[in-house]
């Protein structure tokens, strides 16, 4: 897994990725404090709206990333989006009303929607060896999971010795450090820009068309549906389940999330070795099978073990759910890399990023309102069934040989082979 760090450019990109993630994690917590301070009892509704804005922004802005990167350069775009996030982070502590906060957070999420797919598309251009690229993906996934554990810890220390507004300055420092690290990395130059309004429209839509046309990429899109279904259980329902349904405390809720993260970290560490032994497709579909199966057990556990008696079982379910979740998500970049030529990678990474968040835009309210209306058990079962159905569709679509499914035409477009 660590062999990818032999590449100097990737080392700096990865370091930038880590500090930017820490900045993102701190900003999420800081925004929560800001919303509570600004709205008081209406904080839950406002936070839900902000989460919806985030997903909608990713859905709409993500496809623009490759077209912009071709014109300004991937490196310049990464740096500019980091600097934009620095500006928003520094401005947010001085916000006194919700409308201004919404506008600034839209800018923040728009910058993230351009940064993430551009970053994802840059990694295969820097790390060209297949096994090292798999390790790079594992490291990237590991960084996300570690951030989920480290950011709350840092935030808890900061708010003890300073006000919650100090988190925003930590956020800005993280994004600024990311920009400086990217500036110091030698990245491949972007292809020459394509001129004309018609070509721009084709650039923006090319990745989405490929996602729908190429069988393996349709499988990727279906896998993201499964991830959104199971991920919504962990991200939306953990806190209200533990604090409300089970009568637990905040420490127990946080520890359940930490167990989910620990399962994800374990999977990311094992990923290069397991893929080498099992193959990419069995590893990912096996992870999807695992996370669907264990989440289907939540309702029986809640029925048979009332109150906090369910917690030990839920710890096991959340661990294996995180294990399966990371097994599906972490190697996704390799599936895309094998399915399309290099010239189409930026477009497909952007389309994947955007369309995947479309599933989250559905699964988040489904999980939240489902648990409110029909209860936690039935809702988790429905979401687990959705993931299981996605497994069948993805397994059917992903049957092509590993040599790649499409090739580039002289004009830079992709065609099926």
Percentage of residues in strands: under 5%
Give Rg in angstroms. 21 Å
Question: What is the H/E order?
Answer: HHHHHHHHHHHHHHHHEE
- Kindly state the number of beta strands: 2
Terminal CA distance reads 32 Å
Structural class: mainly alpha
* Contiguous helical run count: 16
What features would you describe in this structure?
By secondary structure, the chain is an all-alpha fold. Helix content is 80%, strand content 1%. The protein contains 16 helices and two strands. It has helices at 8-39, 43-61, 65-72, 74-91, 98-126, 130-161, 166-184, 197-213, 215-245, 250-278, 280-295, 298-304, 311-329, 332-339, 345-373, 376-397; strands spanning 406-408, 414-416. A two-stranded antiparallel sheet has the order 1-2. Strand 1 and strand 2 (414-416) form a beta hairpin. Helix 6 packs antiparallel against helix 10 and helix 9 (215-245) runs antiparallel to helix 16 (376-397). The longest helix has 32 residues, at 8-39. It is globular and about 60 Å long. It starts with 7 loop residues before the first helix and ends with a strand.
Which terms would index this structure?
mainly alpha, 417 residues, two-stranded antiparallel sheet
Summarize the topology.
Layout lengths: L7 H32 L3 H19 L3 H8 L1 H18 L6 H29 L3 H32 L4 H19 L12 H17 L1 H31 L4 H29 L1 H16 L2 H7 L6 H19 L2 H8 L5 H29 L2 H22 L8 E3 L5 E3 L1
Antiparallel strand pairs: 1-2
What is shown here, in short?
It is built from 16 helices and two strands. The chain is mainly α and 417 residues long.
């Amino acid at each position: 897994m660590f062999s990818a760090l032999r590449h100097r450019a990737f080392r700096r990109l990865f370091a930038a990725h880590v500090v930017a993630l820490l900045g993102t994690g701190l900003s999420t917590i800081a925004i929560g404090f800001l919303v509570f301070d600004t709205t008081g009892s209406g904080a839950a509704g406002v936070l839900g709206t902000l989460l919806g804005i985030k997903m909608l922004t990713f859905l709409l802005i993500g496809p623009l990333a490759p077209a912009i990167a071709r014109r300004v350069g991937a490196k310049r775009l990464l740096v500019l989006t980091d600097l934009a996030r620095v500006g928003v982070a520094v401005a947010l502590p001085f916000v006194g009303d919700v409308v201004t906060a919404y506008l600034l957070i839209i800018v923040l999420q728009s910058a993230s929607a351009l940064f993430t797919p551009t970053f994802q598309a840059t990694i295969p251009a820097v790390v060209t060896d297949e096994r090292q690229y798999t390790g790079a993906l594992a490291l990237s996934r590991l960084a996300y999971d570690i951030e989920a554990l480290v950011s709350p810890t840092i935030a808890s220390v900061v708010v003890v010795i300073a006000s919650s507004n100090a988190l925003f300055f930590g956020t800005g420092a993280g994004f600024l450090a990311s920009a400086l690290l990217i500036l110091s990395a030698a990245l491949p130059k972007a292809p020459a820009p394509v001129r004309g309004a018609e070509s721009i429209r084709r650039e923006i839509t090319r990745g989405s068309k490929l996602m729908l046309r190429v069988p393996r990429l349709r499988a990727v899109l279906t896998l993201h549906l499964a991830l959104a279904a199971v991920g919504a259980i962990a991200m939306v329902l953990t806190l209200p389940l533990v604090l409300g349904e089970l009568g637990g405390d905040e420490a127990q809720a946080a520890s359940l999330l930490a167990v989910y993260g620990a399962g994800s970290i374990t999977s990311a560490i094992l990923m290069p070795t397991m893929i080498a032994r099992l193959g990419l497709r069995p590893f990912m579909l096996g992870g999807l099978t695992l996370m669907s199966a264990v989440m289907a057990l939540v309702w029986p556990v809640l029925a048979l073990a009332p109150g906090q008696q369910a917690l030990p079982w839920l710890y096991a379910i959340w661990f294996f759910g995180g294990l399966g979740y990371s097994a599906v998500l972490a190697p996704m970049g390799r599936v895309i890399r094998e399915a399309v030529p290099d010239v189409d990678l930026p477009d497909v990474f952007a389309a994947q990023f955007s369309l995947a968040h479309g599933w989250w835009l559905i699964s988040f309210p489904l999980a939240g309102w489902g648990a409110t209306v029909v209860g936690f058990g039935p809702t988790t079962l429905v979401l687990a069934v959705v993931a299981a159905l996605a497994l069948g569709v993805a397994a059917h679509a992903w049957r092509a040989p590993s040599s790649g499914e499409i090739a580039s035409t002289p004009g830079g477009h992709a065609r099926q082979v």
